[in-house]
Amino acid sequence: MRRGTLKAGEYQFVQPATLPSVYNRIVRGDVYTRTVTIPEGYNLFDIAQAVEDAQLGSKASFLAAASQDVSLIADLDPRAKSLEGYLFPDTYRFPRRLTPEQLLAAMVRRFRQNSASIGLDGDYHRVVTLASLVEKETPVAADRPLVASVLENRLAKEMPLMTDPTVIYAAMLENRYRGTIYQSDLKRDSAYNTYRHTGLPPGPICSPGTASLQAAMHPADSHFLYFVADPAAAGHSRFASTLQEHERNVTAYRQGLKDLQGAH
């Protein structure tokens, strides 16, 4: 039998194996990994739950590490209070015995690789924060540059962004999100409440994917200041430059929802 260094780790044998084949697998380090998929738009709470579900560690220890390990991105975003926004959405395969810090480092490394490949540089904090709003506001890649343009146009006019996902995130940070937005949430004086505060929220609210990062880097050239979902066109939005036009779109949206409910 050839001599080699045995690699520590968890190994899975689905069927009986001979001693040499067992030995060879341990020498190769062919360890059993657990898969965790992070979809675009997951925030730290979602990612921590996915990690726990994959039996890679507890949700609480992952969240604690994500708040403490900001040194991982200090060169990109010195203002970051956590790793929110910098854990790149992807499918990861990890051996079970990794620490939360090792999981986070792998996800940040994937973010760095991706951001380099699309030419992201400069103000990471602003781009990733804007991209996270775009990610949460539309599931349609083609609409993302337009959504980014609406947000940029509102910022330029010092209009509040008034995005629901930031209000939801504020509630999640305070562990009081109840699955829907209440009037009390809209009135709450959180820095993430973009109904009460102008400008971008203090940081990202989720992990944006490539398309949203690119939209934040290169918004469409438009005069739009408003958008609302279009129930007749799955996932798409209707855009408007004036409040009157937007109100017509909102009325059409509500009617469209009624029609869809009536059809079921």
What would you say this structure looks like, in words?
Helix content is 45%, strand content 7%. With 264 residues, the chain is mainly alpha-helical. The strands form 2 sheets. The chain has a two-stranded antiparallel ribbon. The chain is globular.
Summarize the structure.
This protein has 264 residues and is mostly helical.
The N- to C-terminal Cα distance equals 68 Å
Q: Quickly count the helices.
A: 10
The shape is globular
Structural class: mainly alpha
Strand content: 5-15%
Major sheet details = 2 strands, antiparallel
Throw out a few tags for this protein:
single chain, 264 residues, mainly alpha, two-stranded antiparallel sheet
Summarize the topology:
Elements: H1 19-28, E1 33-37, H2 44-53, H3 59-68, E2 91-95, H4 100-117, H5 124-137, H6 144-156, H7 164-173, H8 183-187, H9 210-217, E3 226-229, E4 237-240, H10 243-262
Antiparallel strand pairs: 1-2, 3-4
